[in-house]
Design brief:
Layout lengths: L4 E6 L5 H12 L2 E4 H14 L7 H9 L3 E6 L2 E6 L2 E2 L7 H11 L2 H15 L4 E5 L2 H5 L5 E6 L2 H14 L6 H17 L12 E4 L5 H16 L3
Parallel strand pairs: 1-6, 1-7, 2-6, 7-8
Antiparallel strand pairs: 3-4, 4-5
The site of 2'-deoxycytidine-5'-monophosphate has 14 residues, from helix 2, helix 4 and helix 8.
């Protein structure tokens, strides 16, 4: 069967990775979380005290960063230079810096090149902020996902709790608001809905309903509709 590229963009913590994972399991597509790649780069900068305002230091750091996503027992884990950093990249220090790091043009150039290479073979579902607008403007199916901000904060809080990461709900909420603002207002590849993206607000629909909706859209796109 013909394989396509599914691009999912949207605000922080609106369930992009849940949807992308569900599509990946249902269709056998490769799931690429581009946010994890930006988070892994941010972790490297933090660990190495990289001055993010110094372009030379940033370039040097980028040359030493190798991120990849590996599937182990059906779950995707983020690796930074061969180390599994999946838990650490969700911590608040990374969450608080990632929007600044991902606004640096050199960082985006490097990440976007890697993402395009991964998507070359199709059969890929990729989530992020600029997938439908910049990384794959020719993607056959583009989804722009959103949901109520309070619901998003509670979802993120519970997700962190489940992973054993301690954070106060108001800090999680503040981080989401700040990241949404920075991600939507930056000059370089801001978060935006592509004009041909399908808008899905999942505040009041179930995970199953959301998946069924997207699988039906994929079917249409595969048939060329
Ligand atoms: O999807 P996430 O919340 O894990 O992403 C973390 C941050 O990375 C997000 O606040 C903005 C940045 N990001 C980006 O700028 N472009 C992408 N394609 C994906 C994420």
């Amino acid at each position: 069967m013909k394989k396509i590229i599914v691009a999912i963009d949207g605000h922080s913590s609106c369930g992009k990775s849940t949807l992308a994972n569900d599509i990946s399991h249902a269709c056998g597509y490769l799931y690429i979380s581009t946010g994890s790649m930006y988070r892994a780069a941010t972790l490297y900068f933090l660990r190495n005290d990289t001055d993010i305002k110094d372009p030379v230091a940033v370039e040097k750091a980028l040359n030493n960063i190798n991120t990849d996503l590996r599937v182990i027992d059906g779950q995707t884990f983020t690796f930074l230079n061969d180390e599994n950093v999946e838990t650490e990249i969700r911590d608040m220090p990374v969450s608080n810096l990632v929007s600044q790091v991902s606004a640096i043009p050199a960082v985006r150039t490097s990440m976007v090149a890697q993402q395009r290479k991964i998507g070359e073979k199709k059969g890929v579902v990729m989530d992020g902020r600029d997938i439908g607008t910049v990384v794959f403007p020719e993607a056959e199916l583009k989804i722009f996902l959103t949901s109520d901000p309070n619901i998003r904060a509670i979802r993120r809080y519970k997700e962190l709790q489940k992973k054993g990461i301690i954070a106060a709900l108001h800090d999680v909420e503040a981080n989401l608001t700040q990241r949404d603002h920075l991600d939507s207002t930056r000059t370089n590849s801001p978060l935006a809905k592509a004009s041909d993206a399908v808008l899905i607000d999942n505040t009041n629909i179930t995970r199953e309903e959301q998946l069924a909706m997207v699988l039906a859209l994929m079917d249409c796109r595969i048939k060329g509709a």
